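Lab notes, practical 5.
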Amino acid sequence: MSDKGSAYRRSIRSVTIIGLIGALLSVAIVMAVGIASFREFATGNHMREDLLYSTALRAQLQRIYEKLLTAEAGGLGYVVTGRDEFLAPLDEVRADIRKEIDALSQLSAERPQHAISLSELARYSDQEMRLLSDMVETRNAAGALAASNVMETRRGKALMDRIRQVVEQVRNAEVEAIERKTYEVRIAGQRTKRTLLLLLAAAI
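Output from the prediction step:
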């Protein structure tokens, strides 16, 4: 009877130990599943924030470029026709283009890789606005023929072409970065799902 009692107690202890180990493993698996799920959620959330940030940055770039095109059309229109109605869009852009560029600089603070390109954009924009203003002032002071000389100087500098190149360079870099991150997040998500399935299978 004593041997049977000892064997029974050992059996109970073994079952208890196995049960505890199983419970601990279950808790560990549940925690691992929770951590993996949280990491996937955090990664996806960061990706969404980055996408919104990139979209805002590209929109601001496009806004600046379109304003400069508007200023160009107004300045050239005034030089050719001498009609004051062309000055309104030029004056409007002149008044707020610097604020738009400053806003872009603040917005791009998290993108140090664009610092050189955006510095070039600011410099080219300032030069373009100065040349457009010089064209208008020369047109007023000396007529269309004299203003055409300033126009040729401006054409030779090809500032709008340079501005367009900078805008496209930054925009393309942003698109490529987002596409690369999207791919990385998708691959990481697939790995996480496989890990979760393995953990759940182990728990079962």
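Observations recorded by the TA: The first helix runs from residue 2 to 81. The mean pLDDT is 79.
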